[in-house]
């Protein structure tokens, strides 16, 4: 009979139980960890007995972000780049937390600075076989020293991948442990690292999924609020405020809105956010080839703005300055067009160069259409008022959109108005908009749902009592996009419950087919239901699952049946279930079940795997 390697690693006897108990405490700390520093402190509590002097936690990602300059002592971009053997491993990393001699967080020059894995000599070596830990017993005998000054002073390193394993693994991060002396991990220590890597990966995947989900919901809500503020803006200053608000999240220092000059269509005029000025529209022709998409420029010399984005045209403008005349470090330009005509330009400025976050880029791309409609509607309304100052219909024919004059039932419109076919009472909302404009003596906007979706911009005719003029813009495309965004947000909200359950009651993989499902906090109806939902998602097949209640602070007696049914469901799908630290309230309902402390349960499962 071949002995089980877990038993060989020493998880038997009093020492094995003690080790398992220490590991169990680390698991419970992991469950409570809500920051990267807290995750690393939990990791350190499980491995500090092995004597590492330094532990670094790197998060992995495919999005490189803003790599920026790096000190060559830390990141070497000059050497040969090793081949990446597993395409599923992210390409970039960022140092998220550092533990040093019991202190966490400790300082480190690499903290918060993204870099390519292939540029870091130690992590690049790990990339050659990323599914297993890289163990370097004695760096003095290794021809390739560590890239980091702290690692150069180390004698031994362990690079521990945090991966969920399986056919479709996830790679949320990697741990690098350093020793100042030669260190050869024992089989038991190696197993602890493997167990820890799997458990931390399980937790981080659940945490990151919930964070990403929440960010998506926040992004959808921000878009909804910004679009609503844009539609309700009554002045150009309010329109600029609605457009600039999302950029305040990354500390925009200035905002300006340029509109096409009605007196000279070849120029833009600054209408909000600064002193009146003009600029040639031709100088921005390159931007308008990709209208309604954001561009980000950084000022790298005093006379020439150059683009952050590859292939972006460089606008022929002087050095960008804010309202106070100070030079800007980065400028976002959002060219707005509607119906094939250039309408406006939004300009946001920052005091220092910076990348445009992906979420903010998506938001401004989504806001561009509604913003262009809002500004084009105002411009076309002004043209309609100028073309029919006394309510004469003939002057409205030259407009590129439907236009009407009058009030109530006495509406007259151009041929594009007739083509809309608003009959059988469908014209009533339009008539109401004109009547409201007359009553308020102000310009206003009304949005009409349906097919086509229409935005009505109306204003009273100056000097003509009881009459108003209006233009109607087809907003069907924007309305469809808004419906899709709202539907996507509803789907996100529906899925949020399941993700919250996975985060509140995570399934922490340990090794092979062994996992711990820790339940913490008050075990009430909601938490018991989360446990049931998570248990129902555990795949069929032989495995050992430890339902741990060590972190439970209180129990509703009515939850005992739900817990028992969840366990029976797991058994029915082929799992062996062990209850650890079950509260007295549950013991009667769980009579006949295997109940241990978490440490004992882990030690038992590791020595005598049931799966």
From TrEMBL:
<dbReference type="InterPro" id="IPR029016">
    <property type="entry name" value="GAF-like_dom_sf"/>
</dbReference>
<protein>
    <recommendedName>
        <fullName>STAS domain-containing protein</fullName>
    </recommendedName>
</protein>
<feature type="region of interest" description="Disordered">
    <location>
        <begin position="302"/>
        <end position="322"/>
    </location>
</feature>
<feature type="domain" description="STAS">
    <location>
        <begin position="504"/>
        <end position="590"/>
    </location>
</feature>
<feature type="coiled-coil region">
    <location>
        <begin position="469"/>
        <end position="496"/>
    </location>
</feature>
<keyword id="KW-0175">Coiled coil</keyword>
<dbReference type="InterPro" id="IPR036513">
    <property type="entry name" value="STAS_dom_sf"/>
</dbReference>
<dbReference type="InterPro" id="IPR002645">
    <property type="entry name" value="STAS_dom"/>
</dbReference>
<dbReference type="Pfam" id="PF01740">
    <property type="entry name" value="STAS"/>
</dbReference>
């Amino acid at each position: 009979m071949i002995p089980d390697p877990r038993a060989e690693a020493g998880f038997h006897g009093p020492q094995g139980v003690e080790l398992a108990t220490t590991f169990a405490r680390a698991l419970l700390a992991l469950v409570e960890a809500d920051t990267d520093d807290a995750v690393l402190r939990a990791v350190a509590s499980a491995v500090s007995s092995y004597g590492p002097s330094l532990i670094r936690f790197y998060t992995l990602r495919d999005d490189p972000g803003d790599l920026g300059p790096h000190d060559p002592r830390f990141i070497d971009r000059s050497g040969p780049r090793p081949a990446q053997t597993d395409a599923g491993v992210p390409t970039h990393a960022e140092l998220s937390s550092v533990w040093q001699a019991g202190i966490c967080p400790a300082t480190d020059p690499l903290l918060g600075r993204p870099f390519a894995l292939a540029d870091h000599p130690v992590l690049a070596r790990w990339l050659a076989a990323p599914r297993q830990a890289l163990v370097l017993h004695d760096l003095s005998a290794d021809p390739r020293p560590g890239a980091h000054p702290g690692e150069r002073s180390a004698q031994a390193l362990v690079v521990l991948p945090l991966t969920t394993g399986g056919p479709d693994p996830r790679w949320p991060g990697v741990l690098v442990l350093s020793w100042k002396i030669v260190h050869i991990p024992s089989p038991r220590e190696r197993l602890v690292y493997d167990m820890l890597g799997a458990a931390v990966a399980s937790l981080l995947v659940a945490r990151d999924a919930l964070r990403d989900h929440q960010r998506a919901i926040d992004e959808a809500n921000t878009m909804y609020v910004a679009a609503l503020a844009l539609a309700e803006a009554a002045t150009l200053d309010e329109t600029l405020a609605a457009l600039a608000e999302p950029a305040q999240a990354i500390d925009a220092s200035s905002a300006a809105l340029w509109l096409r000059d009605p007196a000279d269509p070849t120029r833009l005029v600054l209408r909000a956010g600064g002193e009146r000025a003009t600029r040639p529209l031709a100088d921005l022709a390159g931007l308008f080839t990709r209208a309604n998409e954001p561009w980000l420029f950084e000022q790298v010399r005093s006379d020439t703005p150059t683009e952050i984005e590859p292939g972006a045209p460089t606008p022929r403008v002087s050095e960008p300055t804010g309202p106070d005349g100070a030079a800007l470090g980065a400028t976002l330009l959002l060219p707005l067009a509607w119906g094939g005509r250039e309408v406006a330009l939004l300009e946001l400025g920052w005091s220092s160069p910076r990348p445009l976050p992906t979420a903010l880029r998506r938001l401004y791309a989504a806001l561009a259409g509604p913003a262009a409609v809002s500004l084009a509607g105002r411009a076309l309304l002004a043209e309609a008022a100028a073309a029919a100052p006394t309510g004469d219909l003939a002057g409205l024919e030259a407009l590129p959109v439907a236009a009407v004059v009058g009030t109530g039932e006495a509406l007259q419109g151009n041929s594009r108005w007739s083509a809309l076919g608003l009959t059988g009472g469908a014209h009533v909302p339009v008539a109401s908009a004109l009547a409201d404009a007359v009553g308020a003596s102000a310009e206003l906007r009304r949005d009409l749902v349906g097919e086509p979706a229409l935005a009505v911009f109306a204003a009273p005719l100056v000097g003509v009592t009881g009459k108003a003029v209006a233009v109607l813009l087809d907003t069907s495309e924007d309305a469809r996009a808004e419906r899709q965004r709202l539907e996507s947000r509803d789907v996100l909200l529906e899925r949020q419950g399941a993700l919250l359950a996975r985060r509140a009651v995570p399934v922490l993989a340990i090794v092979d087919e062994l996992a711990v499902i820790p339940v913490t906090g008050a075990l009430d109806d909601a938490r018991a239901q989360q446990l049931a939902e998570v248990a129902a998602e555990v795949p069929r097949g032989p495995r050992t699952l430890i339902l741990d209640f060590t972190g439970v602070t209180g129990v509703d007696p009515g939850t005992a049946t739900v817990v028992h049914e969840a366990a029976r469901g797991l058994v029915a799908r082929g799992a062996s279930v062990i209850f650890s630290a079950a509260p007295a309230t549950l013991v009667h309902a769980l009579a006949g079940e295997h109940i241990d402390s978490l440490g004992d349960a882990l030690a038992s499962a590791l020595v005598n795997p049931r799966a």
